[in-house]
Specification:
With 375 residues, this protein is an alpha+beta fold. It folds into two domains: 6-234, 3-Layer(aba) Sandwich (Rossmann fold), CATH 3.40.50.300; 238-372, Beta Barrel (OB fold (Dihydrolipoamide Acetyltransferase, E2P)). Helices cover 22% and strands 37% of the residues. The protein is built from eight helices and 20 strands. The protein has a six-stranded mixed β-sheet, sandwiched between helices. A five-stranded antiparallel β-sheet has the order 13-12-11-14-20. A five-stranded antiparallel β-sheet has the order 15-19-16-17-18, with no helix packed on it. Strand 17 and strand 18 form a beta hairpin. Helix 2 (94-104) runs parallel beside helix 4 (138-150) and helix 3 packs across helix 4 (138-150). The longest helix has 18 residues, at 168-185. The relative contact order is 0.11. The mean pLDDT is 92.
Length: 375
């Protein structure tokens, strides 16, 4: 496995009275595609710049394969950075932009030519070798920047929101290419983004950050299905989130418990399974993702106490081709978001329309207790 382990231990950084990073601790594995995800101002770019050596922390260390790199110049670390704004030399050709790091090292000309052409082939720019940056599209410019960052064969590639300046379709295409490049090169990628769909689609693991803190580290599946905090639940995808109180928690099956929650916003109690025992009276946050909620025009005929069923009407349907999003106003006035995937051809349009009376339901296994709220 190429690349190296990157360990962030107790890293903090303040800019005047503003705390950009507060005791960040992350272990990134060799060869991993790891994303730092969070909203603007959460500290992710500051952390990336500290890893790169462009900023120094007020406290903590950053280690590459166990070696503390704090105090080492950026050009002497085992990392290279791809920036959001490409940072290409406008007067140099694509070939010379990529060759620039090798010319600084006084690499022999024959080696430069072979290596540059190899990396331009890797990023699918063989036909653009002699063009200047102003003759390239945004996606092509970013591929040049990636090739230039990789040509020195760093152990860690740092990517600071590299796709944010591109339009949506181009961004998605280049994201797939970036993932393929990672698979071929095999070094450690650390990717900064505020776009949760980008992070979910390519990352081996993700660190979700907010207000300088690392809130949760996990695989895309873990982050989405088992959010550790209310912020993570709301930031990753869309969800229905409610404050609730534990009424009962009893052993269910295997290592699970069946929990009864009282949710004032829904006006009644619901069932949810959980792996942790919670005590009656505890205040917790409960979430159910819109795609886990089923919507029908007829009441579900189920004798199971593990199905939560509510009646309401469609306040707002939003058709988006592959799915419809419904805002359903329940009988007690609370609005629930529901996603319905279109699996079959809709000859007469969506079967559920505006103002229709509907039933929404979900299994106890499809809800999730996000966190216990401190009382």
């Amino acid at each position: 496995m190429k690349g190296c382990d990157v360990t962030i231990e107790g890293v903090s950084k303040n800019f005047g009275s503003f705390c950009a990073l507060d005791d960040a601790n992350i272990k990134i594995n060799k060869g991993e595609f790891f994303s730092l995800l969070g909203p603007s101002g959460c500290g992710k770019t500051t952390l990336l710049r500290i890893i790169a050596g462009f900023e120094s922390p007020d406290a903590g260390i950053v280690s590459f394969d166990g070696r503390n790199v704090i105090g080492i110049d950026p050009n002497k670390r085992q990392s290279n950075t791809v920036f959001q704004n490409y940072a290409l030399f406008p007067h140099l050709s694509v070939f010379e932009n990529v060759a620039f790091p090798l010319r600084l090292k006084k690499t022999p000309g024959a080696q430069i030519e072979k290596k540059v052409l190899d990396y331009l082939h890797l990023v699918q720019l063989d036909a653009h070798v002699h063009k200047k940056p102003n003759q390239l599209s945004g996606g092509q410019k970013q591929r040049v920047a990636i090739a230039r960052a990789l040509i020195n064969e760093p152990s860690v590639l740092l990517l600071d929101e590299p796709l944010s300046a591109l339009d949506a379709k181009l961004r998605q295409n280049l994201l797939v290419e970036l993932d393929n490049i990672h698979d071929q090169i095999g070094i450690t990628f650390i990717y900064v983004t505020h776009d949760q769909s980008e992070a979910l689609s390519v990352s081996d693991r993700i660190a979700v950050m907010n207000q300088g803190k690392v809130l949760q580290i996990g695989t895309p599946y873990e982050i989405y299905e088992s959010p550790a905090t209310e912020f993570v639940a709301k930031f990753i995808g869309e969800t229905n989130l409610f404050d609730s109180r534990v009424v009962e928690c009893v052993p269910y099956k295997n290592d699970e418990f069946m929990v009864t929650l009282d949710i004032p916003e829904l006006g009644r109690q619901i069932k949810v399974t959980d792996y942790d025992r919670t005590e009656p009276g505890q205040q917790v946050s409960f979430t159910v993702r819109p795609e886990k909620v089923r919507i029908t025009t007829e009441e579900p005929q189920s004798a199971s106490r593990e199905i939560n069923v509510f009646r309401g009407f469609v306040e707002e349907p939003v058709y988006s081709g592959f799915q419809s999003k419904f805002y359903v106003k329940l009988d007690n006035g609370t609005v629930l978001k529901v996603f319905k995937q279109h699996q079959n051809y809709l000859e007469d349009g969506p079967e559920i329309q505006w103002k229709d009376t509907v039933y929404v339901s979900w299994s106890a296994n499809d809800g999730y207790i996000v966190e216990v709220i401190n009382q």
